[in-house]
Description:
The chain is mainly beta. It has no helices and eleven strands. Helices cover about 0% and strands about 50% of the residues.
Amino acid sequence: xxxxxxxxxxxxxxxxxxxxxxxxxGFTFREYTMRWARQAPGKAFEWVSGIASDGKEAxxxxxxxxxxxxxxxxxxxxxxxxxxxxxxxxxxxxxxxKSKNRADWHEFEYPGQGTQVTVSS
Length: 121
C-alpha cells in the first residue's frame, strides 16, 4: 500500500525558511520521480518542485525557482523541500507526490494528507 506522510509545515514569517519532509513507503522509492505540489484556498493545485528517481535532476516551478530546493535520500525513502525567502503567497497545503509510472515526469499521484505552510507576519 502506497503511503506518504508529509511533515515540517508550520507558521513562518515573510523571508523565513521551512523544511518539509515526506516519508514514503509501500513502493520502491528509488525508482520513482517525486514531486512537491501545493493547494492554496481559492487557487488551483500547482506543482512546485520535482526530482528524478536518482536525484540527479531537479525541476522547479518559476514561482519558486531560486528559493526552494528539493532533495531526496533514497536510502531512507525520504523526500525533502527546503523553502527559503518565503512569501505570503507560499501559504498553502503542501503535498508529496509520486510518479504514476516510475521515472516518468508526466503524471503524479498525491496519496498523503499534506502539511500546512502559513507565511504571515
